[in-house]
Amino acid sequence: MRKFWLLFSQTVTVFLAAYFVVATLKPQWLNRPGMGSVAVIEAPAGVAGTPAPAGSFAAAAKAASAAVVSINTSKAAARNPNMDDPWFKFFFGDQGGQNEPQVGLGSGVIVSPNGYILTNNHVVEGADDIEVILNDTRKAKAKIIGTDPETDLAILKIEVDKLPVIVLGSSDTLQVGDQVLAIGNPFGVGQTVTSGIVSALGRNQLGINTFENFIQTDAAINPGNSGGALVDTQGRLLGINTAIYSRSGGSMGIGFAIPVSTGKQVLESIVKDGQVTRGWIGVEPQDLSPEVAETFGIKPEALGAGGVIITGVLQNGPAAQAGIVPGDVITTVAGKPVRTVTELLSAVAALKPGVAAPLGVLRKDRKTEIAVVPGTRQRPKVQR
Question: Of the residues 148, 152, 218, 328, which is catalytic?
């Protein structure tokens, strides 16, 4: 009996030693089904349904990208005026007077399920043929509904079913430092999303448009991005990418977008009336520098937040009929402060023609308010 227990103990000792060696050197041999082991399977990165990592803009990009389109334009080749000259034909043939057709590239944003697209006027200006390519690869011919060269905006329309539409945000609540995304088709490489922040607000006097109130951003904007979307981190439209400051032709971190508030106003006016109607009062304004103020005898303490001096008034114009005279300083328009000629021009343009609006006026150090009934601003003549 003693010999049996000795044999049993030796067997158990050898088994335990062997198990210890295997568990230490080859643990995978012991992970067999039914042995109580737990298999862990990690979800691959990027699988649908997995939460985006912190700081990702994937949701915003996905929400907005579907409504951002590429715009291809073409303009027929100009016919050489010498084509009717027989000697010209003799030397150059019938093809000698044909120039190459002009092609262009830009972007746009679908803002209505009816097919209305907001883009830049310079993207479609002079185009004979406009093709819109959706993010889902569908293509459609576009028709120009109207343009507004003074803000460099244009409205196109396509006839396509089940269109993705971007959600309009509020550019009026933007603050410097807010994160934004720029979406478009730079250089024709395909839809591209870049990120940055709002670098400045209310940029004007850039000499780009008549009415300027640009959002400045450092999100990369390049040729082909024009007409594309500037969106917030929720994918809501804040502006239409329009221009860049560049010495090389590429992005240098200074891009400009037209606020969506301006885009919405232009869209509604063009769809409703076929054109944008703006107010006009018939004055010749000038920025009020300290030298000009001294010339007109205006005391600095009377100005307060500043204003725009009127150096000329059109005879029988709206301002003249209301009693505005040269030397008056306009400080507010419909309750909105104006400090520069650009701000005055934009504020007056926003007035509804035929409806009286109050203008804050400083005259010989005395503040007063004058009601002016604005007329209709004439549309600029298109240069051919």
Answer: 152
- pTM of the predicted model as reported, rounded to 2 decimal places: 0.72
| Topology at the third CATH level for domain 60-157 | Thrombin, subunit H (2.40.10)
Q: What is the pLDDT of residue 365?
A: 75
* Alpha-carbon span 155 to 159, nearest angstrom: 14
User: Where does residue 274 rank: exposed (0-12), middle (13-18), buried (19+ CB within 10 A)?
Assistant: exposed
Domains 171-273 and 279-376 share a fold: no
Percentage above 90 pLDDT, the chain: 43
Burial of 338 (0-12, 13-18, 19+ CB in 10 A): buried
Marked catalytic residue, from 107, 171, 226, 346 = 226
Q: Catalytic residue at 226?
A: yes
10 beta partners: none
Beta bridge partners of 279: 376
Catalytic residue among 65, 70, 122, 199: 122
Residue type, 237: L
Question: 193 Cβ partners below 8 Å, 6+ apart?
Answer: 57, 61, 65, 181, 182, 183
Q: How many angstroms separate the first and last alpha carbons of the chain?
A: 118
Closest CA relative to residue 329, chosen from 291, 357, 353, 302: 302
| Pairing state between β 102-110 and 68-75 | antiparallel
Domain spanning 279-376 has what CATH number? 2.30.42.10
122 noted as active-site residue: yes
Asked if the 171-273 domain carries CATH number 3.40.640.10, the reply is no
Q: Could you state, in order of their start, the residue ranges of all structural domains in the chain?
A: 60-157, 171-273, 279-376
pLDDT (tens digit per residue) in 49-82: 456 676 788 999 999 999 999 999 988 766 656 6
96/99 Cα distance (integer angstroms): 8
CB neighbour list of residue 168: distance below 8 Å, 6 or more residues apart:
111, 236, 237, 260, 264
